[in-house]
């Protein structure tokens, strides 16, 4: 189970939580800036790979607006799996602002990524 | 299973040269993230690391204006002082004396264990 979520009052609110996900201690920190969400998800207690996720709105064949997210690795492993994980997490969060996401994971299975997404959601 | 957060987050503000400057420090293993600003925005981020050869830490701007050197310079100075990887985001009006005060305050806060 996740530990109690810590909340602080500041100009930039931060919330953090920790949990054990498939045997690994996982920490999540969400910093709410006005123009960005800065999310740390780590099992190494380091930032690791830093990914910038921005929203693109495209018009589909029925003239409806569909949101897609673009990912850009700013630092670290620029591998397909990194983009897949970042897109999975951010699409599920559907945030109103661009996201700076940092991932340092020992385990990259879909179950872990989903558990991390839930942890992040509990901090939003 | 009970898990406790080990990542320490410190928030504080300081009145420096008639401006309220806000700080946020996130301490991680062998690295830290520091944000400094007047407004709650994340406009840029720089990373710096101790260089294997030579005494000047290497730095790079991750996002934001590449010509804005405040964050990377501050990151380099903090790496030089603490010899660990630093992520810095600094968005304050350019003023050398203000930068100096900010650096001093950050060093003071980061020196606490």
UniProtKB/TrEMBL annotation, chain A:
Q: What is a single Pfam family found in this protein's UniProt entry?
A: PAC3
Q: Tell me the superkingdom of the source.
A: Eukaryota
InterPro entries membership: Proteasome_assmbl_chp_3 (IPR018788), Psm_Assembly_Chaperone (IPR053720)
Instruction: Name one process (GO BP) from the record.
Output: proteasome assembly
Name listed for the protein in its UniProt record: Proteasome assembly chaperone 3
Automatic annotation (TrEMBL), chain B:
Task: Tell me the InterPro entries matching this sequence.
Answer: PAC4 (IPR032157)
- Which GO biological-process labels does this protein carry? proteasome assembly
Q: Which Pfam families match?
A: PAC4
Q: Which domain of life is it from?
A: Eukaryota
**PANTHER family the UniProt entry points to:** PROTEASOME ASSEMBLY CHAPERONE 4 (PTHR33559)
Please identify the protein, giving its name as recorded.
Proteasome assembly chaperone 4
Q: Which organism was this protein described from?
A: Lymnaea stagnalis (Great pond snail)
